[in-house]
Amino acid sequence: MSEFHNNLSYSQIDLFHQCPRKWTFKYIDKIDTEQKSIYLDYGSAVHKGLEFAFWELKDTNTLNKNEMMKTIADLSLDYAYGDKDGELKTLAIKDMERLLNYEGFYQKIKNKEIIGIEEEFNLVIPTMLCGENIDINIKGFIDLIYRDDDDKLVVVDHKTSKKKFDKNKRRNNLQIPIYFMAIFDKFGEYPKSGIYNFTKLNTFQESLFTEKITDEQNELMNKRNPKTIWAKGIKESKKEIIQTFKDMNNKKFRLTTNPSPLCYFCDYKAICTNASNWKPKEKK
């Protein structure tokens, strides 16, 4: 039996779509850049703080302010990687305070039944490659799962990025559809929706579930500022995941590059012969 790269995660799929060669450097060549980032540290602090808070809420139906803040304080952001003014720590604390007061997105989870926190999953998608039956294994964790007032499941992913997703990203992103399929495998029902909770921005974006995008739904989403976004349909998502898996296992294809301004921030730009020469303008 041939060896295939069939153990994936959403982050792997997303990185491959961004640039196949960058994915190859990391997951095939296993080149570890050992780059640390204050933003990764900030994201870790926020996720740990929220994880602790939601476990408290699930187990006791209360929130412990002192313990929540201690979780943030223990993951130092002040000087570890350069947050000398404490800006990121302040943002993390503000998000904890919004949860304590059930403000913004957190209004949605007040008095709701919490089903899962950092819920682990292994989604299996069968396919064929080179005449062999292969299982694509997509592993990951879902930040939060709860039931809404209609007794429908809702999945949540906490985002610590500095901007929201645009319409196309929300329509084409595979993260929420992967969560939908994983939830169906575990609970026997598809969620009502998936929510991106942008903790730094005090806002959220919701994508509704549908098995297949209809012409009517497409027409509504094609408007300049659509009120409703449906996540990519399940059948279409599986098809894209299978094609991505096949491209990952195509030695020629995975060496292709997608030069863009993102190359400037790439950990592998020094060893990539096709990296873009774009640089940000210097501030005067």
From TrEMBL:
Which segments constitute the PD-(D/E)XK endonuclease-like domain?
A: 8-272
**Source taxonomy:** Bacteria, Bacillati, Bacillota, Tissierellia, Tissierellales
Give a single Pfam family match. PDDEXK_1
Tree of life domain: Bacteria
Keywords for this entry?
ATP-binding, DNA damage, DNA repair, DNA-binding, Helicase, Hydrolase, Nucleotide-binding
Give the protein's recorded name.
Answer: PD-(D/E)XK nuclease family protein
